[in-house]
Design brief:
By secondary structure, the protein is α+β, with helices and mostly antiparallel strands. Strand 5 and strand 6 form a beta hairpin. The two termini are about 35 Å apart. The protein binds cytidine-5'-monophosphate (C5P).
Length: about 300
């Protein structure tokens, strides 16, 4: 029986704009996603018995069918009629309910991995459609690179930034977590203002031209007001990051993780030390700029 080791990166949203609500209840977004050098490690081992087993080390995750990685395996088995099972081992380093895409990235890794191990030969476009059934962020993770993302998350347009990012990131998550659904609900009920998608477009253009200086100016998240409404204490994280020298501090996904953007290593170390004393998850990371390994058929 075969086994496969996979890396499931975390992501940050450098810009997240909410354009409006769709007839299906989801929200139309425009966003720039960046992959990190930090993430979960998965091992998939094929089993003869028809079961999907999950073993997790590190951060606690939902068990059974609540878990997106398990659902990814069950979905493939059901659709493609595989008789055997799989054991999924996850070294869980990405916190859950953080806005870092951990669950979606694990699910995408399971889709990629089982496509290989079960020799299903599913083309990337179809794999992305299966991913979208599991969650809005899953199609993005089938790419693993910088991307402009639209629709409810299913439109993924990869791009390759020029030059090297001059920034190091500090990811800071308070003890509490947020459910994406609750944050979108609050966004709607409070009538927070909507965007036209121009910020995401501008950032993509700037990065494609190697203009990394534009990032601190353009980084922003329309869901921030709603997330702060639900967890008022996170506003202090943003202020602290700015006071400690971050050139920008913004929320990723639906939060509550804040991303501090630092140019200098010394400031970053000082900020990391200060915040580690107070908060349970403080982690340095770098954005990964590299060409896509994936199939270009996902381009729209
Ligand atoms: O797709 P996913 O299961 O990750 O989404 C969780 C919830 O977040 C959805 O049920 C929906 O309420 C909300 N959502 C949304 N618009 C999006 C993505 C998610 O309203 N683009």
């Amino acid at each position: 029986m075969g086994a496969l080791h996979l890396f499931a990166p975390a992501k940050v949203n450098l810009v997240l704009e909410v354009l409006g609500q769709r007839p299906d209840g989801y929200h139309e977004i425009a966003s720039v996603f960046a992959p990190l050098d930090f993430g979960d490690f998965l091992t998939l081992t094929l089993l003869e018995e028809p079961v999907v087993r999950l073993h997790v080390r590190g951060h606690a995750v939902p068990a059974g069918k609540e878990n997106l990685a398990v659902r990814a395996a069950l979905l493939l088995r059901e659709r493609f009629g595989r008789r055997g099972g799989v054991r999924i081992d996850i070294e869980k380093r990405i916190p859950v309910g953080a806005g870092l895409g951990g669950g979606s990235s694990d699910a995408a890794a399971v889709l990629r991995g089982l496509n290989i191990l079960w020799e299903l030969g599913i083309p990337s476009e179809e794999l992305a459609a299966l991913g979208a059934e599991l969650g809005s962020d899953v199609p993005y993770f089938l790419w693993d690179g910088f991307a402009w993302v639209g629709g409810r998350g299913e439109r993924v347009e990869p791009f390759l930034p020029q030059g090297e990012s001059p920034y190091r990131l500090l990811l800071v998550k308070p003890r509490a977590s947020l459910a994406t659904k609750d944050v979108f609900l609050r966004f709607r009920s409070r009538g927070f203002s909507r965007s036209d998608g121009s910020r995401s477009r501008k950032l993509r253009e700037a990065l494609c031209a190697g203009d990394w200086e534009a990032l601190p100016e353009l980084a922003a998240n329309d869901l921030e007001g709603a997330a702060v409404d639900l967890l008022p204490e996170i506003a202090a994280v943003r202020e602290t990051l700015k006071e400690l020298g971050a050139c920008a501090a913004f929320l990723t996904g639906s939060g509550p993780t804040y991303v501090g953007l630092f140019r200098g290593g010394e400031e970053l170390s000082r900020a990391r030390e200060a915040l580690t004393r107070e908060l349970p998850f403080v982690r340095e990371a770098t954005m990964v700029v590299r060409p896509f390994a994936g199939n270009t058929s996902l381009r729209k």
